[in-house]
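BUG: 3D viewer hangs when loading the predicted structure for this chain

Environment: internal workstation, default settings.
Expected: structure renders.
Actual: progress bar stalls at 90%.

Input used:
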Amino acid sequence: MCAIIVIVALSCKGPPSNLADQVTIYRDTWGIPHIYGETDAAAVYGFIYAQCEDDFPRIELNYIKAMGLLAQVEGESQVYHDLRAKMFITKSEAMLAYESSPEWLKELCVAWSEGINHYLDEHTEVEPKLIHHFEPWMPMFFSEGSIGSNILRVDIAGIESMYSDSLLFSKSTAISSRKPPSGSNGIAIKGNKINSGNAMLLINPHTSFYFRGEAHVESKEGLSTYGAYTWGQFFFYQGFNENLGWMHTTSDVDVIDQYIESFIKQDGLFYVHNDSLKPVEVTNVKIPYSSINGLRTKEFKIYKTHHGPVTHLNEANLPVTTALMIDPSKALQQSFLRNKASTFNEFKEVLDYRANSSNNTVYADKEGNIAFYYGNFVPRRKSSTNFSDEVDGSDIMNDWNGKHEVDELVQVVNPPNDWVQNCNSTPFTSAGKYSPDPKNYPSYMALDIENYRGIHAINLLEKAESLTLDDFIDLAYDPYLPFAEEMITDFIQAAKRQNLNDKELQSAIEVMEAWDYKADIKSVALSIFLYHEDVIYDTYSHLGFKNELAWMKHYQNEVSDSKKMEIMRKSLNMIKNDFGRWNIEWGEIMRYQRLNEIIDLQYSDSLPSIPIGYAPSYMGALATFEPSYESDTKLRYGESGNSFVAVIQFGDTLLAKSVLVGGQSGDPSSRHFDDQIELYAKGQFKDVLFYLKDIKSNLEAEYKPGRKNVK
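Structure tokens produced before the viewer hung:
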């Protein structure tokens, strides 16, 4: 009889699957795994085994979070995190989704679980925090690959306020709003823009550092893909094969709606819908959490309508449900099949699953096609209703009415200008003058507005001619900061209208006037601008501007000249307070530091770090480096931004280059823990080894799962 290990070990350990004999793992000199399997299932088995070798803790943590188990690891503070997860998908629902999946997908899920369990069986020195045995239904909890699933956009504070007492409707909370993404860039170019004439693709996600690894997976059943994967998943989130490639940027398509419900107690609890009463679904949920006295449990009653669970009370103290896409099997099918597409038509057939609820897609292929699709899953709604606000849940006309067809999405395919781009910016500038017209689409389809990264990319692409692959890298890393130029130009003009007697301020203005508005390790002006923006944010964040364009408009039109001087003086004083002088170079402030395997890194000014010359996304930087603002250090340590970056040129022979922040391994004792950081800091790329002859010419190890430990 099987023993239950913790709470998720539901089946006995058996002998290693014979799939291990059908897999060969090659590690190149950068530690990148190249997995060759006889079948797709064998390739998945080897793929997840290699991931475990590189960073099992991140795999486990991703599933702990997705399955609503975090409180068992981190304690009572995470109870409402887990409650939110279980509101939208439970273990029984994940198991049902797995059982109802097509056989080919179930086979891959079994191979996935066997690959992880094989690793854990053989590596007894690895101590999982909670999940000691993985089951085939678990991938249903983590099926898209986005850094933040739509469930994470539901405000935990609202859930806690709603459910913290055992009484229904005890508190009120405001509606949550998602923070704008820090960025991702996707660019596809072709034709006269390219020296070779072959289409090229930029994959440039701006994610939390170390959130994704790099790999290459092949099988004899048509799988042959290279790219970036999210730890614990058996598909590539952003990637390419010999025929085509894709980049996902975070989308602001409206795919989450909130419904004000009318609840009535009448021999039970009901809600009003279409002039009739329907029973409210009430579910008892237990959330275990760790404490100094051992495992404890909190119990909740979850209330649901056909729209979704009640996630908060609005200002009128009325229950509000949240509707979002929960279709894990379909999402997982789409995520994997995307990897196997080999033509534009096949890629569009995968798009037609319409189960990707959080991403835009930038596409390029060997035949010279380029395309941009804004969103994928988009619910069809009543166009006259403003779904950006809470809507009346009793009105059936406000319900979703299926989902839009792919051809109805905002998109650009093979525009005459030979380029498309998306930098989390509006799709209506995605191809310059050949961009889609917003009048042709419902308002809820395109909520993203323009940003300085988009403006920056468009200016570069309009001027680009006969680019080589290295030229494309230079374009992607262009250091110009359009936001900085516009704001500092305005500041200098304001300064000239003032009678300044402050010599220090005048010296800083001279530095600003001489600045070329480019990010550079040696730039003093950029350091001043960073602190200037910190003061601006602290002063005006209560006004709730959506992005930097709105900040700029307010600064130019509403902030007086004298106030602008006051802000700059305060900025200089803050720099002096931190460093003893105001004229400090950017590289002395902006640093990269990763010294251990801890996932939630803690930074220290007394420990080694290296300078980085990239700037934050809001400045209009294409190559971004976002510092942590939760650290109490004086130096600014990067925690997100450029992570995995790749440029690909399609043709008779695939050419690609890539770089990964830090390195492939999460183990500090491995030389692949930080062997790419020098390339990363310099904006240099390594050659992607896509063909087996090239891999074997740059080989570090060759083995089958379980036959060799790789450091």
